[in-house]
Amino acid sequence: QPVVAVVGRPNVGKSTLVNRIIGRRQAVVEDIPGVTRDRVPYDAQWNGRAFTVVDTGGWEPDAKDRAAAIAAQAETAVVTADVVLFVVDAMVGSTDVDEAAVKMLRRSAKPVILVANKADNTTIEMEATSLWSLGLGEPFPVSALHGRGSGDLLDAIMAALPEAPKIVENRPRGPRRVALVGRPNVGKSSLLNRFSGEERAVVDSVAGTTVDPVDSLVEIGGETWQLVDTAGLRKRVGKASGTEYYASLRTASAIEAAEVAVVLLDSSEVISEQDQRILTMVVEAGRALVIAFNKWDLVDADRRYYLDKEIDRELRRIPWAIRLNLSAQTGRAVDKLAPALRRALASWETRVPTAHLNQWLTALVQATPHPVRGGRAPRILFATQAGVAPPRFVLFTTGPLDAGYQRFVERKLREEFGFEGSPIDISVRPRK
Ligand code: GDP
Questions:
Q1: Residues 6+ apart with CB under 8 A from 251
Q2: Nearest CA to ligand 1 atom 20
Q3: Choice from 180, 183, 188, 190 to test ligand 1 binding pocket (greatest atom count within 8 A of CB)
Q4: How many CB atoms within 10 Å of residue 222?
Q5: Residues pairing with 35 in the sheet
Q6: To 5 degrees, how large is the angle CA 170–CA 173–CA 177?
Q7: What are the EngA-type G domain coordinates in residue numbering (predicted)?
Q8: Which of 180, 185, 250, 267 most suits a substitution to test ligand 1, by most atoms within 8 Å of the C-beta?
Q9: Could you tell me whether strands 260-266 and 176-181 are parallel, antiparallel, or unpaired per DSSP bridges?
Q10: Longest Cα pair distance anywhere in the chain, in angstroms?
Q11: Residue 211 to residues 169, 193, 207: CA-CA distances in angstroms?
Q12: Which end of the chain is more exposed for a tag (fewer CB within 10 A), N or C?
């Protein structure tokens, strides 16, 4: 279970903050000057994720050796914690004591989140921006007492935690949800009919699952899949089934409801703006993606030549998508669909162990460091995977990264770990 340590001077509101995080009031004793608390762990949860909060206690401000007291507290936090919450009083601003503590914490290379507590209103919140000067990155203004900003803070803590517990089987073990999308006439109904038409039995129900009546349960590659929102495809009450606007909304909601999308393109026609819009919807929704070039039976050598050029040009931004050349009409390569869906979903749910991720990252930044800009080069300190479906990564850095370098990191990350068929998300958390 990951550990979050709370560090800060007495009276900045650490106890109140801990209470806010663990969701209990008055559970933690207030700082009493002259009384040094031992570190006390509390169980907490956020978004279904369990973690431990350690209140590191306060140091006695008038102690003979204040520096030693600060050091001891910071050390406790650093040794035990995965993430350190450094709490300052937003109404007071940073003090020399705070700065001394920051020095200790910075040596640790542990992620430190700067909490500007007592930001009870917008005015104090604005003033909290001056705390950037502490060199810990963005301050999180919070009112531990009233709860203001605590949700954002908890989100930030979750993103910084090293590794989610393996509750992989959390997802109800029903059929995987697939969106079969594409502009009109690319062959969606034809493909659906291959799976659910007369030739094959439609699966009506799967034990223990409820399926939306607009969805179809079909067997593809020996497995049952839930094709979401296929009602319009099955009925085929004429071609005019609504405006393009309405169709686009439907496509978007099908993608949203799905885990993986099959975007059908018509290989006999140029890749259009509408095709691009649908692809963008999938990428932006963060769904796994298989691009099926349908009507492949119509592709001759000549068309093939131009199509390859179009693919280079139009699909350059999504080189990771899995591509299939099939024909709903002849049945060509239709059996490749299920393996492609499985592969894309596996990538989508990949979790890279933190140790492996950071070994790879260390080697990468050593071989190719960030280019120097204005005499300085931001360093990537370490990375964690903040989530799956799709995989999301957080890079902890000493400063913002060049867009080009960030793309380089993403490309290398894919080279190392694959993620074929899945978008990935990388965010950067600069610490100063
Ligand atoms: P939808 O609007 O995307 O559902 O497209 P349909 O399934 O209605 O197909 C549109 C037209 O393309 C129909 O005339 C189909 O017969 C034809 N079609 C679909 N798939 C193929 C294919 O693989 N090859 C060829 N040659 N025609 C196809």
A1: 179, 181, 278, 281
A2: 187
A3: 190
A4: 6
A5: none
A6: 105
A7: 2-165, 176-349
A8: 185
A9: parallel
A10: 86
A11: 20, 19, 11
A12: N
Asked if domains 3-160 and 170-348 share a fold, the reply is yes
pLDDT, one tens digit per residue, over 354-400 is 778 888 998 999 999 999 988 889 988 778 888 999 999 988 888 89
Annotated binding-site residue? 13:
yes
**How is residue 211 annotated by DSSP?**
-
The full set of domain ranges for the chain reads 3-160, 170-348, 354-430
Tracing tokens 């990951």 back to the chain, one arrives at 2
Ligand 1 centroid to Cα of residue 405, in Å, is 43
Residue nearest atom 25 of ligand 1, based on CA coordinates: 295
Closest listed residue to residue 125, CA positions, set 150, 147, 143: 143
**Does the 170-348 domain belong in CATH 3.30.70.1730?**
no
Supply the CATH classification number for the domain 354-430. 3.30.300.20
Report which protein residue has its CA nearest ligand 1's atom 14. Answer: 185
The residue assigned the tokens 């969805």 is: 215
Nearest CA to ligand 1 atom 27: 295
Measured CA to CA in angstroms, residue 100 lies from 46, 95, 115 at distances of: 31, 9, 16
Regions of the chain with pLDDT less than 50 = 26, 34-36, 165-170, 198-205, 207-208, 235-240, 432
What values do phi and psi take at 298, rounded to 5?
-90, -5
CA distances 391 to 1, 34, 64, 242, 386, Å, are: 21, 47, 50, 36, 8
Cα 15 to Cα 321: distance, rounded to the nearest angstrom: 48
Could you identify the residue written with the tokens 């917008």? Answer: 122
Q: At what angle do helices 244-257 and 273-285 cross, to 10 degrees?
A: 30
Q: Which CATH architecture has domain 3-160?
A: 3-Layer(aba) Sandwich (3.40)
Mean pLDDT (the chain, rounded)? 84
